């Protein structure tokens, strides 16, 4: 799943970054979402496998960096989906004013601000957990709950996670439940490119050009993929 998550999101990143026709506000949001999910597949998921083992042998520094990156990617992924929802809402409910309300510059500013917020809030959350030893196992889930509560978004893959985390905090949940809840979060990052990009014809055409290495041809960025 880690390799599949990284591969699918990398295809989205290459497609939107390379082909100029795809440089639109909506696709910029998809690009930002793909970056966060790509980091989940490339770094977060593989290291999380090591957490299942009874002993962490990579040291405190790597442990802190892992949780910090986990917080950032989860926050950024959820916040990017919020932006995509707003973008689609305006496009469907107010299409005449969409070009003036949703501009590339405004989207870029929102994406940057959301990533900065993700980094800052993740740092604060990690700091709070560092001064309270023994909370590493639950802080990852608490991170998800805080984000979902803050933005008011209830995601299909977060509902069972939130339930499991609440049980974990108040009662006790065995390690299997923690692994399962994490699996659902990582599965969300794997399915995002399928949900948000694969259904578009331009993405399927872009993937074909990438796989056949036609993007290496001169001026391939100008190819019509729409």
What features would you highlight for this structure?
single chain; 226 residues; mainly alpha; Rhopdopsin 7-helix transmembrane proteins; 9 helices; 0% strand; globular
- pLDDT under 50 segments (min length 5)? 133-155, 170-174
CATH architecture: Up-down Bundle
> Quick one: how many beta strands?
0
Q: Helix amount, in percent?
A: over 70%
Main sheet attributes: strand count, strand direction, barrel closure: none
Notes on the protein architecture:
This protein is mainly α and 226 residues long. It has helices spanning 2-18, 25-51, 59-93, 98-101, 104-130, 136-151, 159-170, 175-198, 201-211. The chain has a single domain (2-133, 188-219), classed as Rhodopsin 7-helix transmembrane proteins (Rhopdopsin 7-helix transmembrane proteins, Up-down Bundle). The protein contains nine helices and no strands. It is globular, with a radius of gyration of 19 Å. The chain starts with a helix and ends in a 15-residue tail after the last helix. Mean pLDDT is 75; it is low at 133-155 and 170-174.
List strands and helices in order, with pairings.
Layout: H1 2-18, H2 25-51, H3 59-93, H4 98-101, H5 104-130, H6 136-151, H7 159-170, H8 175-198, H9 201-211
